[in-house]
Design goal:
203 residues; 4-stranded mixed sheet; 0% helix; rod-shaped
């Protein structure tokens, strides 16, 4: 047996004996404290003022174990694509009909390989979201997921003015593009030298 946290009070059966004789319950009182949350609960038995017995009993304790997180978190199977925003799979976390609360019932962290990230990731790549039980809950739940690269469509590159190679950094190029899911970002542009010595962008 043993008790596992489920949000309800735990009330173990109490028996008091005088030697081998069971004392009827009307001869004593029972107080149980800290018997809902995970941890150590205390049972205190005292002689009833109206009873036929006078005694002093040492308090007894029992444990309420944390509930494992495994099975309590359900993830969506949404496909994530790079948008410039921080992303992770959507999820629901509940137990006994009650929604679990982040930083009260669990904490969330993000890994990329062996590296723990400081925040939810935004770049395309493979990641793991890690839920760790807290207070009344224990254990870890890990979910691997991928942020896929965004697809850029209809890329058009235009030359603002004609530049001739001088050995110095060239300026004056203008670029326009249309993207399906990309927010404002910076882009690396590759230039190619033509036979006439001019540098032009590769479209």
């Amino acid at each position: 047996g043993g008790y596992v946290y489920d949000g309800t009070e735990k009330t173990p059966e109490v028996t008091v004996k005088d030697g081998n004789t069971v004392i009827p319950a009307e001869n004593y009182t029972v107080a149980i404290t800290d018997n809902t949350a995970a941890g150590t609960a205390t049972v205190t038995v005292a002689a009833a003022e109206s009873g036929n017995y006078s005694f002093t009993a040492e308090p007894k304790t029992f444990e309420i174990a944390q509930k494992p997180l495994d099975g309590l978190i359900q993830f969506s199977e949404d496909t994530l694509t790079y948008t410039g925003a921080r992303q992770a799979p959507s999820f629901t976390a509940s137990y006994m009909g009650n929604e679990l609360v982040e930083n009260t019932d669990y904490t969330v962290a993000y890994d990329q390989g062996e590296t723990e990230l400081l925040a939810k990731p935004r770049d395309a790549g493979d990641y793991t979201v890690v839920f760790t039980g807290k207070n009344n809950f224990s254990g870890e739940v890990r979910k691997n997921y991928t942020i896929h690269k965004a697809t850029i469509m209809n890329v058009n590159v235009s030359q603002a003015n004609k530049n001739t190679y001088t050995g110095a950094q060239q300026t004056g190029w203008s670029f326009t593009w249309q993207a399906t899911t990309v927010n404002q970002q910076s882009w690396n542009v590759t230039f190619s030298e033509r036979k006439d010595g001019e540098y032009v962008p590769i479209q």
